[in-house]
Amino acid sequence: MATTTAPSLSAPAVTWDVNDGIATVALDLKGQPVNVISRAVKDEFLACFAALADDARVRAVAFFSGKPDNFIAGADIEEFVTLGSAAEAERLSADGQEMLERVARFPKPIAVGIHGACLGGGFEFALACHYRVATDHPKTQIGLPEVQLGILPAAGGCQRLPRLVGARGALDMILAGKSERAAKAFRLGMVDELVPPPILAEITIAAARRMASGWRPKRKRPGGFVGFLLDGNPLGRGIVFRAARKQVFERTGGHYPAPFAALEAVEHGLKHGLAEGLKREAQLFGQLAVTDVSRKLVQIFFATNQLKKDPGVPNAPPPERVKRLGIIGSGFMGSGIAGTAVSQAEVDVRMKDSDVARVARGILAARAILDDRLKRRRVTKYEYERLVALLSGGDTYAGFGRAELTIEAVFEEIGVKQQVLREAEGVLPPTGVFASNTSTIPITRIAEAAHDPERVIGMHFFSPVAKMPLLEVIPGARTSAQTVSTAVAFGRRMGKTVIVVRDSPGFWVNRILAPYPNEVGHLLAEGASIEEIDSMAVRFGFPVGPVTLLDEVGLDVALKVAGVMQEAYGDRLTVPPGPGIAALVKAGRLGRKSGRGFYSYKGGKKRGVDESVYGLLGIHPNGGPRPAEIMQRLVLGIVNEAARALAESVVRSPRDGDIGAIFGFGFPPFRGGPLRYADDLSAERVVADLERLAERYGTRFAPSDVLQEQARRGTKFYS
Ligand code: NAI
After folding, report:
1. d(Cα 44, Cα 49) in Å, to the nearest integer?
2. Which residue(s) pair with 674 in the sheet?
3. pTM above 0.85, yes or no
4. C-alpha 310 – ligand 1 centre gap (Å)
5. Which one of 472, 532, 629, 641 is the catalytic residue?
6. Which domains are present in the chain?
7. What does DSSP say about strands 131-135 and 110-114: parallel, antiparallel, or unpaired?
């Protein structure tokens, strides 16, 4: 049967053929890696459905993606960023809603077969169809991630999902911008049927055929009796919405308007009906689309996407494909790297430590990462078993001879690092890369011990490795482009966002972060309280304050890093008066890991400030500086150092620098990173503030040359 297409100027994305009463439609954006819904695609959809409505042969429709591993990734974000006004954005949403209304009311039933990412507008389309079949493949991810871009699902998603799965389930997905694997989506009621990929087409077409003969799916309200109590009546729903609002506030500190707007769109629709809900949804989308927060989140999204394609060096040779990974040092970081490498990159991992007992502990710790994924049903029992089998280790280098990449995470001592490098070089394959996870030692120094420094590089992971999204890759003075390419590519396979950073003290993240905890000492000495310092940072938008951060990192680790930073940049990092953190470390208070630091911890939970800390530090909180000034001192120290480090080319671009700050230590994403933040304030204002602080608190706040120059010329980091 001949394939029919909708009229279109360029190659058509929507094609269909009719067979035995069923129209099989496929969406495939030619020349694009994934399907997205743009204006052009919408027009083709409309033309296609108009033709199918008129075609007397067609009794039902089965819809698929023509891409091998992607259904529809969402609405076209490129189109979204060109929106100039709230009214224009509202219209875009209303257009999308209208199209999906037509799909929902289409006179012939539509079944959709989902394989691969089905996100945002893609899932909203699926929601408008009458029956959803999804493959049980790991690539099939279903959800509404819009709030992560500072907007809300605005093609009916805030209306149709709660009607399908109940308010609780829908809010859980929408407010966190989550996507779920198909199995979970099936359990939640987001899809009707779960099938292995080879039979997706057959089952979807069969469902279309059944619906053509009058059959309709019967859907139970999920959640049983409790679900009925909470979702099925206005009183219960009131409770659900109040709880959700509170939770969103706790999670976002009120910095992100999108989840609140989404809540309102859902609530409004359930109270006043679908049509009113859609209207409110479009209005709220209009308002959100032009907010500064949304712009920032979209910039981060684009930057992260660009970094996914960035090989890290100009004219990079193709990376060596890592199939076997060696890890030396199976402690805290080594085991974290091992577990993450296995679960994300599915490579064979061989660990080595000085004795087998330590290796065994390391393997158990690595395995805990897999256990967690199993518990959260991110992997099946079968996949879990297969992944666990990839972990092995011993007290010798057996197995390292075939490792394309080896990462060391031994003690932070140059002698030990150089020793294991020499040992490893003796057994690694001729092209094997040796990476160090050092946080403070120059890679070039470590590489001095190597026969072949071209193959030595830094891969600086952050703790906990499984959760922290950033990796700094640090080429030494003699590292080859091939080595960089291999390290960057592997970091990415581990699921990390990778920035390439110059070999200099603290690299990027620890360097620009250094003024933050350092300022804590000064603030405490001036009489500020621990709670106040932390709360001002949180109010600015950091996930945790600097004192909590110190406890999380471990005070011993922080002290060591501080020493290196002090030595390198001491003129700017003036030491606060008093005994400082060293006194706490001496007293065995290392932070969370030892149950006591600035705060006390019980059963893994943070309790209040451990007041005895003030005695150890020889200080007493008595007010201290004004809260607004505390915030300014914490933030501008970072901004100033970031400006300076960028000027020294520690990162390649403001983009890399901001991404490093956001993903490395949680600089508030809605502010776009320290460099973007400086641009927003204007260099003139930053310099004026820094000068005032320098006058009052000393030269550590003296504005960097680059900021001064920008202030003079009126230029910015981002042009
Ligand atoms: P750790 O003390 O937990 O682990 C070090 C492991 O290396 C121990 O199991 C030890 O037995 C083993 N080891 C020591 N010498 C060895 C040798 N010659 N051969 C084989 N194994 C040997 O330390 P952690 O925290 O995992 O740190 C490791 C590295 O990671 C350090 O360079 C550290 O600076 C770096 N790092 C640490 C971060 C953290 O937050 N802890 C963050 C980023 C990097």
Report:
1. 9
2. none
3. yes
4. 29
5. 472
6. 14-290 (3.90.226.10), 324-503 (3.40.50.720), 511-650+682-713 (1.10.1040.50)
7. parallel
